[in-house]
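Subject: Sanity check before I submit

Could someone independently write out the structure tokens for this chain? I want to compare against mine line by line before I put it in a report. The sequence has 147 residues.
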Amino acid sequence: MIAAVLSLTLLGVALGWVLGLAARYLRVESNPVHEEIQQMLPGVNCGQCGYPGCSGAAEALELVVHGDVTTSKAVGRRIDHLDLPEGVTVGAIVRGVGLEAGGDGRRVLIAHGDTVIEAEDHVILFMVNKDLVPKVERFFQVGLGFF
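---
Independent answer below. Compare away.
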């Protein structure tokens, strides 16, 4: 009886140690922008937007704008001049994502109609329905002149 208890205890300790090492060395780094977006979302009425919680919504609604004025429908244009599908709203823009935080680093801009989108901005979009995602992705695709 004591041998069984002792062997199960040792097995539990060994497996706990292995899981601790696996958590440390196999950790997947998260996107810091994703974490900022998740903090900006309200965290209430989960599921009404069609995503399973704010984490799914934050991940699904972040788009990086590529191209320039000639190859993109968004770069160099004001938010109120974008021809986005009905039910899609630009909530924020994260600018300077690749730069060090602090100094002239990354900035989160709350979107207003007169905000101009620049190349490599991370645009945070809110949608009334997740079925709009493919339309929005097509809108932000660059033209053939980009390549």
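---
OP: Matches mine. For the report I'm noting this point. The chain has two domains: 1-29, 31-146.
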